[in-house]
Amino acid sequence: MAGDKKSGCSAEYQLTEQVFRQIAAGETSTVEIEKTLSQGYLIEEHKNEHRGDSQLLCVVWSSENGKRARHLMRSAADSPQQLILWTYQPNRPQWSTPVKRAGQEEQTVNADLGSCYFCGGDLKSILAGNYDFRLDGELYVIKKVPATLCEQCGEKYLSAEVAKNLEESVAAGAFTGVIQAYVMEYKVKGD
Ligand SMILES: [Zn+2]
To answer: For residue range 56-112, what is the model confidence (pLDDT) as tens digits?
Structure first.
């Protein structure tokens, strides 16, 4: 499982909403994703009987600002198109180098909460500023939600207690305001 295997290349892929949010936020790009798919090395394989197996790829390249590294997790499921689950920049304390996880002694953040189910990253308690969800086609945002955040992939976890409270508040329609949002329609290129 060491970084000695080329991952193989294919521009055929789908990505999760979370990855799209990263692209929209400028944290990554389809160029970076395709670079990782074509040039990345397989550094870990994760087995999961519920979600299916996944593979962690790493690519390192030189930019004007020095060396950059990117990790990309993709589904290892046997399907025609690969699914990009999430991407992130490998940093301390989780990674001592782009391809090497830090030793146990360096992992000090909230060890009692365990690690991220999806990527194994460290978790920390936060108040989620904007916890959004959709219901009957409407977008709702709940603020100040006590959650656990994976510092690596950004996945958020809610306790059952918090989820039940939210469920009740939503059912009761206990919303306090409406915010404005900008809208854009996707345009097919060409034609
Ligand atoms: Zn994670």
So the answer is: 999 988 888 788 899 999 988 777 778 899 899 898 888 888 888 887 444 433 334
Q: How far is the CA of 111 from the centre of ligand 1 (A)?
A: 14
Determine which helix (DSSP H) or strand (DSSP E) holds 74, and give its type and residue range. Answer: strand 66-75
The pLDDT tens digits for 3-54 are: 444 444 446 788 888 888 888 888 888 889 999 999 999 999 888 777 778 8
Number of folded domains that form the chain: 2
- Distance (angstroms) between ligand 1 centre and the Cα of 69 equals 17
Name the helix (H) or strand (E) containing 58. Answer: strand 54-63
* 182 falls within a domain: no
CATH number, domain with residue 141: 3.10.20.860
116 and 80: one domain?
no
- Residues with Cβ–ion distance below 5 A, ligand 1: 116, 118-119, 121, 150, 152-153, 155
> Do the Cβ atoms of 67 and 126 come closer than 8 Å?
no
Four-CA torsion 34, 37, 40, 46, nearest 10 degrees? 140
Task: Say if 97 falls within a structural domain.
Answer: yes
Host domain of residue 91: 1-104
